[in-house]
């Protein structure tokens, strides 16, 4: 349906949108006071709670129209998710950093402030992608899908917190592969477990799972090889050793970025039918329009509507990116004091806590899709985000560190590398048959919990000391 025509129809039928009485010949007569009260109530409801339309956006005055459009953008953004209630913590967290409150207060407030900002960023990205077409929209989603992690990592990299950057990258991958996918399998499997004695499994595209797991195995190798090279080189030549790891990591990062671009072309252009299970249904609809059209319309009705124009969505992206940068700056700046005053290590903060910040809304979306038995969508969120981090964001940060004269490498701490390799192996065995159940979900969550406990139990200076080799320039 043409949105312009829709607005015109609404204006002709609804007197509240343009302030005119309109024609309503068949309506029962009402008193002037009752009509005025009803109109006022509807106007207030539209003004404050209707994310589809705001009175005044079609006003003849440019000032009124601009003000109404700005309010509509703010309203649609705030009403996009319940998690946006936490946006009240954004100014409080920034004030805590400016006024130099305790490190625990600054870290906690900005930690929870970034969660709704990540949700708003995802909402604005979806809105902007909807106006760019399928290919560009998919590319935009892939680019901004992990924008919060990227911003936080660049801020940490600027401050020389290389171990935090590495831990947060690995933590984001493990969080998606084990925690998110495990929760999808667990809750989706429990919801669709079948009857007692006749259990059923959820099904997803095995071809997509195998392709993405192959890419994850490649990214695992890109971390194992630098760690192996570091281990076999002569310990007495630290300068040559450091330079070799840097050159190896930067060359590998360039190769991984090229492979990531090829993956995007493969997913969004040449083989997008493999990643979109509805493509086959669309082909059948083209052959038999009469039979299948009602199903397509019903499916389209289930699609979530986006209520922001491209200009508004871009404006929201800019504002939220700035706010995330500010909150991330205060968050990262408080990490050293948090580590000094608590038993937590930087590895635990980066591996477990920081991924929660950027992925909370994404996690909820994936689990909801699994409960609704949309496993292909849930898997695309979980595995797709992991690939973005492993092949896109992490190599990109190595290049950014090169530009910023920070020795960010792909040589991770040994235990982290082993944890990643084992996780990829377990996930590959779990998803290779294209089926899932709640027991497999519990297994993945169990492995994630074991890794989290291991990093929490490790003293702060025991694991980080090995990772400061490059940050200290030894």
Q: What's the SSE blueprint?
A:
Layout lengths: L2 H11 L18 H18 L12 H17 L10 H10 L4 H28 L2 H12 L2 H12 L3 H30 L2 E2 L2 E2 L2 E2 L2 H27 L5 H33 L1 H4 L2 H10 L1 H14 L7 H24 L1 H7 L4 H26 L3 H29 L10 H18 L3 E2 L1 H20 L2 H12 L3
Antiparallel strand pairs: 1-2, 3-4
Helix pairs in contact: 4-5, 4-14, 5-6, 5-14, 5-16, 7-8, 7-14, 7-17, 8-16, 8-17, 8-18, 8-19, 9-10, 9-17, 9-18, 10-17, 12-13, 16-17, 18-19
Features:
474 residues; mainly alpha; two-stranded antiparallel ribbon; 76% helix; disordered C terminus; A middle domain of Talin 1
Give a concise summary:
The protein is mostly helical. It has helices at residues 3-13, 32-49, 62-78, 89-98, 103-130, 133-144, 147-158, 162-191, 206-232, 238-270, 272-275, 278-287, 289-302, 310-333, 335-341, 346-371, 375-403, 414-431, 438-457, 460-471, and strands spanning 194-195, 198-199, 202-203, 435-436.
Polypeptide structure, described:
The protein is 76% helix and 2% strand. The protein has a two-stranded antiparallel ribbon with strand order 1-2. A two-stranded antiparallel sheet has the order 3-4. Helix 8 (162-191) packs antiparallel against helix 19, helix 10 runs antiparallel to helix 17 and helix 18 (414-431) runs antiparallel to helix 19. The protein has helices at 3-13, 32-49, 62-78, 89-98, 103-130, 133-144, 147-158, 162-191, 206-232, 238-270, 272-275, 278-287, 289-302, 310-333, 335-341, 346-371, 375-403, 414-431, 438-457, 460-471, and strands at 194-195, 198-199, 202-203, 435-436. The chain is globular, with a radius of gyration of 26 Å. It is mostly helical. The longest helix has 33 residues, at 238-270. Strand 1 and strand 2 (198-199) form a beta hairpin. Residues 1-41, 280-304 and 464-474 have low confidence and may be disordered. It has one domain (55-276, 307-472): A middle domain of Talin 1. The protein has 20 helices and 4 strands.
